[in-house]
Amino acid sequence: MQMQLKIMICDECGRFMGAGPYKLLCLTDSLGSLRQAALEMGMSYSKAHALIKRLESAVQRQILRSHSGGAAGGGAELTDFGRKMLQEYTLMERRLQREAALAFENFCVNLDFSMQEEAVSEEV
Questions:
Q1: What value, to the nearest 5°, has the Cα angle with vertex 20 and ends 18 and 23?
Q2: What is the pTM of this model?
Q3: Three-state secondary structure call for residue 74
């Protein structure tokens, strides 16, 4: 048995930051392109762009800075705020994962799952 924790940050319109947007921002940062990040995730560019715009609207700050095409091609990079947001999300996620793992361990110990398994196998 294992515990899985899903973290979502929600605003009044619904969720706006979770594993998907987090991965999109990380990939955009490492690849230097929102289009390439979307492609890597199997997401359309328009959906990725809309997701970024929704994030920016929710936090009322620019997260991604885009560069138009030209000889060097286009690209995108996270703003300082966007990088700070990723950093803080990562720290929060790690902290919550540690706390959840401890809570799950206590859950299992307090319910003595080894006895539960024996009861189930006796019924079969």
A1: 105
A2: 0.79
A3: coil
